[in-house]
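Notes from hallway chat w/ T.B., transcribed later so I don't forget. T.B. wanted the structure written out for a chain they're using in a teaching module, and asked if we could keep both sequence and structure tokens in one place. Agreed to drop them here.
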Amino acid sequence: DMAHGVHPNYAERHQGQNKPQMQQGVVIKENANQRYATNATSMALTRAVAEKGQVPMQMFTVKNDSRCGSTVGPILSARLGVRTIDIGIPQWAMHSCRETCGILDLYALQLLLKEFFASFRSIDNSYKGM
């Protein structure tokens, strides 16, 4: 998926501590109302994979007084019983004709996915029994 990157002209529309910057890495999206599928387990595993692959990560949490869209993640997680996380790269002007994203973020996502397939099993096994 994608994530709403902080636009310099509209920085006040983002939660103060969670403003995804373009060219700063992959974004983990979380929402207290479960509009995204991210939970503590999926976040910890993804962060461990990213750390092993030295992939930069950022957080996105919608501002408290703002509405939030959703993804298919919560539906897939509930209906299929699979562990899920909502991640993406930051972009400006989502759903417009001028969406903009950074190539370094796309590269970071590629590195994260490559590391995920290479090391997820061993990282997941290290968390079992905790």
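Follow-up for T.B.: The mean pLDDT is 87. Might be a good example for the class.
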